[in-house]
Amino acid sequence: MNPRRELYTLVGADLLSNLGTRISVVAIPWLVLETTGSPTRMGLVAAAETLPYMLSSALATPWADRFGVRRTSIFVDAASAVAMAVVALAPWLGFGTLLVLVAIAGGLRGIGDRVKHVLFKPAAERAGVPLIRLTSAYDGLARGMTLFGAVLGGLLIDWVGLTPAIWIDAATFAVCALLIGVLVRPPAPTQPAPREPYLRALRGGFAYLRTDRTLLVMLIVVSASNMFANASVAVWIPLWVNQVLGDPAGFGLLLGVFSAGALLGNLLFTLVGTRLPGQAVFALGLALSGAPRLLALALSEDLVVVLVVTFLSGIGIAAVNPLLGAALYQRVPAALQTRVLGISGSVAFLGLPVGALLGGWSVALFDLGPALLVMSVACLVLTVAPLLFLRSGAGRPAPEPVAPTPA
């Protein structure tokens, strides 16, 4: 198969599974609301999906290496299709069963996302596509799929009903498994990696990440950025919209403008990212994407001002994920990529649940305006200041990994 066509197929399959995930983000909470009428149970379902996703991203990767990355991807997508098809029967199976099924689906998606991303690097190298261009284009497409999938999920529920919408979600995973199984066939490694005991393999991933200060600091600041972003979406922006505009449509407008800025930023970065100084752009992107948006909410009640700052913040965030992804691909040895990418995903996502708690706690303690001022300073300190410690290590090569020891 043509290497570029194989790369496009792999990225397309991953984006298709992302589309299914976005549909379920809308459909499953609506299913819980329709069947139980309980906001508390909606929260429980969200937690039941998120926690296994984070854990499997890191803890299941040694098994993926042993079973084979491509085979793992096919298996977990096929299993995700079955799990989501059974979720559609949840009204007849009970809430406890729904929690278990959603947890299984979340765990499968966690490892499925990681192994598909591991396949990206060798596919890009065979196709002659620069990694920074791949990660930037993928980030932009994934953001677009997130927007489209959320809208599509709501429309599907309206057009075909709740249960068929969840079946369509299941079908996206089945098609993803089929595409990778039939059209993505990476060459077999010339020297298969030695089989390691599970705990030793997992420790190897953590040990490498601990010795690579550049990657570790990048992951910490991205996790902090996710924390403030989730607090904004979950608490600060809805409260500002309610207090200043009094119209919930303003919430969607602000989120849409931020996403539009991010999409434009991704397009620009895809075109010129290979010619820009990575570390400086990474720091600038984090500086623009968080604190200015919070300051605008704190200091202005002018919607136009807030929209402009939000749009520019979206442009800023566009460089962050592609540069982190490229650094992971370039610095982590092939034998450790599945484990290190999995652990890295879990570290980057740690800020999400903390952010929701931080948003509510900060407003309860300070009120909205003062909370936004305090948190804008905290955001700048936590997302940009740690990068100053990388200046002395700029340009250093990644550390050499310890060779895996056979079982």
Structural class: mainly alpha
Q: Flag low-confidence runs.
A: 392-397, 400-407
Beta-strand share of residues: under 5%
- Whole-number radius of gyration? 21 Å
Overall strand count: 0
The tally of helices reads 18
Straight-line distance between termini: 35 Å
Averaging pLDDT over every residue, what do you get? Answer: 86
Q: How are helices and strands ordered from N to C?
A: HHHHHHHHHHHHHHHHHH
CA-based shape: globular
| Largest sheet descriptor | none
Helix content: over 70%
Give an overview in words.
With 407 residues, the protein is mostly helical. The chain is 82% helix and 0% strand. It contains 18 helices and no strands. Helix 1 packs parallel to helix 7, helix 1 runs antiparallel to helix 8 and helix 6 crosses helix 16. The radius of gyration is 21 Å and the shape is globular. The C terminus is likely disordered.
List its salient traits:
mainly alpha, 18 helices, disordered C terminus, single chain, 407 residues
Summarize the structure.
The protein is mainly α. 82% of the residues lie in helices and 0% in strands.
Write the layout of secondary structure elements.
Elements: H1 3-36, H2 39-59, H3 61-67, H4 69-87, H5 90-93, H6 95-127, H7 131-160, H8 162-183, H9 198-211, H10 213-245, H11 249-272, H12 278-289, H13 291-299, H14 303-317, H15 320-331, H16 337-349, H17 351-366, H18 368-384
